Amino acid sequence: MSTTPASTPPALSITGLSKSFGRPAVDGLDLEVRAGEFYLLLGPNGAGKTTTLRMVSGLLKPDAGAIRIFGIDALADPIAAKQITGWLSDEPMIYDKLTPPEYLEFVAGLWNVPGDVAASRSRELLRWLGLAPHARERCEGFSRGMRQKVALAGALVHEPRLIILDEPLTGLDAGAARLVKDVLHEKVRGGSTVLMTTHILEIAERMADRIGVIAQGRLIAEGTLAELRAKTGREGATLEDMFLSLVDEDRAAE
Amino acid sequence: MNAIASLFWFARHERRLAWRDALSMMTAGRPDRERRAWIWLCAFAVALHVIAYLLVRNFVSLEMQADLPTLIGITASILLSGSAMLSQAMESVTRTFYSRSDLELILSAPVKAERLFAVRIGAMALSAAIMSVLLMGPFINVLIWRDGWRWLSAYGVLIAVSLVTTSLAVAITIKLFQWIGPRRTRLAAQIAAAIVGGVFVIGLQTAAMFSSGTLQRLSILQSETVLSRAPGLDSPLWWPAAAALGNRLDLVWVLAASLLIFLAVTARYAPRFAGYVLEASSVAQASRPAMRAHRFRVLPPAASLRRKERLLILRDPWLISQSLMQLLYLSPPALLLWHNYGKAGGAIVLVPVLVMTSGQLAGGLAWLTISGEDAPDLVRSAPVKPGRLLRAKAEAVMQCIGIVFLPFLAVLLFVSQRQAFFAAAGIGAAALSSIAIQLWFRGQAKRSQFRRRHTSSRIATLAEALISIAWAGTGAVAVSGNSLWPASAGFALFLLLCVRWLSPSRLS
Questions:
Q1: Which of A109, A169, B162, B238 has the highest CB neighbour number within 10 Å of its CB?
Q2: What is the 3-state secondary structure (H, E, C) of A32-50?
Q3: What is the dihedral of CA B74, B77, B78, B82, to 10 degrees?
């Protein structure tokens, strides 16, 4: 876990966040992600994880609540908040008719990254993600894993301070998943903050600094793996056991 | 399951898919709209019958006989609908080859795929026939009503034409496949389909323009030159026209010949379809020839968006073929302008066509850039104001419109500055109106759904066409020197305001 000076504002601070689509999807959520940490959001299907991340990324407007990214009010000044945020969804959305460098050039343009900086970062990202040999091919022939890697490169090309990823490992083979995990790990070591959802609990156990468990739009538990074990009173339990126990408890409390 | 039973089984499967697909297109994927869609369809059918009556009543009063001018006129109509059917069938064949949808399932199943492809070729013929019946049916019905039952045989001719055009489409596409390979066939077939769809009308207009200086197609067909060079009345060339006029023997010959051609083509090519489909499906997976080395150049956000839109438009073969189709219709008035160079008359025809085409082209491009954004989350999560994003997309469309229409305006400028001014204003107004409509009615979709863009909002489609016509009319009134053009422009703006009032973006 990285340490940050006390004066540094949290990477993400969510207060009383609510969103309803007929029924509440996110229900008065409070959440804080510290700068430089790898925070993992777990929850069953329909718990409100994606809705939360989409609101943080400025893709959905909340019904109520506040979102601050490194102290910037993301609802009052979305442009400034977006400037330091990178977003990657579970469904890689890229342009089939562009090559990976053309895609990154476009993304760098949207985030106003200076040309020479963007060029060197793009080269580095493409090499890092194993896409350099495909740099002159259009994305239309790419496999799902390659498309996800192009999208990840796009989310990182402007060096965001907060990287938000929604199920980024869905559908990736072991090699590609490992590569993505390594890249994210490197980014956290370099000072970036990662907020990610996943269903792969092994990642939570191995990579996350802190884990938040969300159910029915509310945060029902939060902490390091050890803290969660203490909270559930299950010494030596796997995260899967704890996760299921927490969700079951929450359902029973309804 | 024996061969016949499996053919019927596949046919039933295809019918169910086609029916649900058609319903989904009519209702834009919303089952609650089904009743409304049927009401619209009935209203459309009634409107078509009224239009058909107004157009056909004069011919009926002439008591049409199987003389040379009548046979030429009917043959031209058959060729006209045949070229549209051929275009549609080529489109369908290309789509069957390149769309993977259920083909992997079927090809991996222990059944003879040739039976399915035989059914699919039949389905293409059927859909071509249904489309032409929908468009030509009202005319035939009016003729039956006013001139007697003999015209019922025209439906038989339509079926024969659909069989022949589908056979031709299958043969042409497969030949293209053999000659130029699966990668190039896709683009070539799409462009060929677009050209085939318009070439007959354009050819007739061009011929009429050079012979009489007008764009009246009928004038060339009934000219002395054509009548004197046409084959005699006993030529088999006139069998389809004679069959349409009620000659039963000719109808039997036409139907038999077309069925024979269709069965021969199906028997020859259906067994090969599976192989071609597999080859075509490997195109997407195979790496394309490497593009030339890319010079990394970052532009400001709006310019980046414009460049991205331009690149995507230029690299989209389907879109190019569709745009080419619209641009093709510009060639006869362009020729007219060249033919009448220095005279004022040509512009009265050219300006409305330019304005109308601009509106339609801008509507399609605006849908692609605004609604057909393939990475909406990426663009919306960028630190750029939503208004600036939309403006950049609209600017990209206007740039494309400028590239297409500037050559025409440049030529027009030499003819008359006043006409060039009105043409430019009309082109700009029509394009901006279509972009505005697409902005007001925008909805998230995939670029690949371009073919179905009209089904998502019929109000937007109708409004786009009506307002383009209104601006085209304004252009015609203005270049003819009539001082009423501000009233016409005001009417176009009023229509635009009505559309704004009806749009979901105002209501939300």
A1: B162
A2: EECCCCEEEEECCCCCCHH
A3: 170
CA distance between the termini of chain A: 35
Using the structure block, give the residue that is written with the tokens 């580095």. A124
Question: How does strand A12-21 pair with strand A64-69?
Answer: antiparallel
Reported as a single tens digit per residue, the pLDDT across B442-472 is 877 777 777 666 666 677 888 888 899 899 8
State pLDDT tens for residues B219-250.
666 777 777 777 877 888 889 988 988 888 98
A64 contacts A50 by C-beta, under 8 angstroms: no
Contact A137 B296 (CB under 8 A): no
Chain B contact for A191, CB < 8 A?
Answer: no
CB contact (8 A) between residue A89 and residue B377 = yes
- The secondary element (H helix, E strand) that includes residue A214 is strand A210-215
Residue of chain A whose alpha carbon sits nearest to that of B377: A59
Contact A97 B284 (CB under 8 A): no
A64 at the B interface (CB within 8 A)? no
Query: Do residues B75 and B241 touch, judged by C-beta distance below 8 A?
Result: yes
CB B6, CB B112: distance < 8 Å: yes
Which string of DSSP letters, residue by residue, matches B279-298?
Answer: HHHHHHHSPPPPPPPP----
d(CA B434, CA B468): 8
Q: Which residues pair with A20 in a beta bridge?
A: A24
Tokens of A133: 């040999």
pTM to 2 decimal places: 0.70
CB B46 within 8 A of CB B142: no
